[in-house]
Specification:
Blueprint lengths: L21 H4 L9 E4 L2 E4 L1 H11 L10 H29 L8 H22 L11 H4 L2 H9 L9 H12 L1 H6 L3
Antiparallel strand pairs: 1-2
Length: about 180
């Protein structure tokens, strides 16, 4: 939506293992989401999908033109996937289980790590509306992780003011509302 493109979304029930079924493995042999099918081309991984769409549809850019800001955007996009997400998913994988099967130590470890990531992001957002100048793929990269975190009953703490306001700005975007099933 941010680029003005039309698409059709197919939702998979990840807890039910739909991403490991033969139909999806034919699209992405490693069974990870997301995947993009553009005509006959299949593109895997959110980072690669974002850059593919940026290259194919350069109007309404979602990466800064300035090389330093572009590097910053790419670094924050990587940070979302490589650092924040694994910490959050330590929590999320446990809270999806019945309460009697949850490993409290794993949840606490994930909460501590997530809080440290929030501290870093809060500092980096000081004086900025978005991570790399204008709204970009850097900001988009955090949306699925933070949304999953909220759906699990957590929230970005208000004591991380910059981060909290940034997350509120992201959720106000029309593309955010249209990106999640009702």
């Amino acid at each position: 939506m941010e680029k003005g493109l039309q698409w059709e979304t197919t939702w998979l029930d990840l807890p039910a293992g739909e991403h490991k079924r033969p139909e999806y493995l034919a699209i992405n042999p490693v069974g990870k989401v997301p995947a993009l099918i553009d005509d006959k081309l299949i593109v895997h991984d959110s980072t690669i999908i974002g850059e593919y769409l940026e290259d194919k549809y350069p109007d309404r850019p979602l990466l800064p033109r300035d090389p330093a800001l572009k590097a910053r955007a790419r670094a924050f996009e990587d940070y979302a996937d490589a650092y924040l997400a694994p910490s959050m998913y330590k929590i999320l994988l446990q809270v999806r289980k019945p309460e009697t099967e949850r490993d409290r130590a794993k949840i606490e470890a994930g909460e501590g790590e997530t809080r440290r990531h929030f501290e870093y992001l809060n500092r980096e957002l000081a004086g900025r509306d978005y991570l790399a100048g204008e709204f970009s793929l850097a900001d988009i990269a955090y949306m699925p992780h933070l949304s999953s975190y909220e759906r699990a009953g957590y929230a970005v703490p208000v004591d991380f003011g910059e981060l909290h306001r940034w997350w509120a700005r992201l959720k106000e975007r029309p593309s955010y509302a249209k990106s999640w099933p009702l």
